[in-house]
Structures are given as C-alpha cells and as structure tokens.
Amino acid sequence: MKLWxxxxxxxxxxxxxxxxxIKPTIVREHSMEATLQEYDYIILNRQAYLFSEPKVxxxxxxxxxxxxxxxxxxxxxxxxxxxxxxxxxxxDGKVYRNGEPLDEPYxxxxxxxxxxxxxxxxxxxxxxxxxxxxNSIDSRDSSVGFVSYxxxxxxxxxxxxxxxxxxxxx
Length: 170
What we know:
Elements: H1 2-21, E1 22-26, E2 41-45, E3 59-67, E4 73-82, E5 87-91, E6 94-97, E7 100-101, E8 116-120, E9 125-129, E10 147-148, E11 152-161, E12 167-168
Antiparallel strand pairs: 1-2, 2-11, 3-4, 3-11, 4-9, 5-6, 5-8, 6-7, 9-10, 11-12
C-alpha cells in the first residue's frame, strides 16, 4: 500500500513540474503561415525567459486583451521582430529594424504590404508580427500593440503534429 502512495505522489510531483515547464497548445489561426498552420500542435517552453531575454525571431504565445467569441481571453502566437529600444518601421514591403531591412524568408508572401511610421519599442516590451503579414493582428494593430514581457506565456519550441512535420520550431 505504501508503494502505491509513493508512486502516486511521484507522478503528481512530475505532473506539476511538467505543467510549470511546458504547455501543449494548438494553433487556431492563419497568422503564422507558412511557418505554422492552423491546427498544428505545439509545445511551449514556459520558462524560456526565466534566465534569458527574448530574441528577434523567437515565436511566442502571449496573453492579450482581445476576447474570443466564447468570451474567453484570446492568446496570440507571433514572431518577435523588435526588442526594447529598437526602432521599427515598414516601407515599400520591407520591415526595418534600427534602419536595416530584415531578411524574412519565413513570411508567407515575402513582403509586408502595410506601411508604418517608425516606432520605438518600450522597455520590457516586444514588437511582434505574424508570418502571414496580410492576415495577422499583431503589434501594428492598436488592439495588440507592444507585448509586455509579463504577458508572455511561453516560447514555441516543438511541433508535435502534423506527424510529418515533428521537430524543433526555428
């Protein structure tokens, strides 16, 4: 009997630790195509930024003030484009970071159709965009704006489904 209780306690502790370290998530939108598709099943590293800072190119999931049709908070998944202090603007189909055009082979159409005047990313915040620039609500939209570090749920690290695309997310 004591072994059963010990095994259950160990399983409970492992389960609690895992839920603090990783979070399985299903992509529900088209805004990250071609990198991620709707219904891709991914794993987030919830502790990715405990000892390091986000980097340009990271794909993150974060809390927003947006509300789903069922009344629940809407989580978004986007790519980090700008870090605190970075100057970001969009012109002639290109995104510029600190005056330099970004090389963005991951975008769906290879360009960003919108124009945007230069903004400076505030301290403890990020500028994020979807890879499907024509179908993405992201930092260009005032309903999302800059993403505070506090709102980050985790960094997308592994795709588990579809099975033919299992692997690390780069």
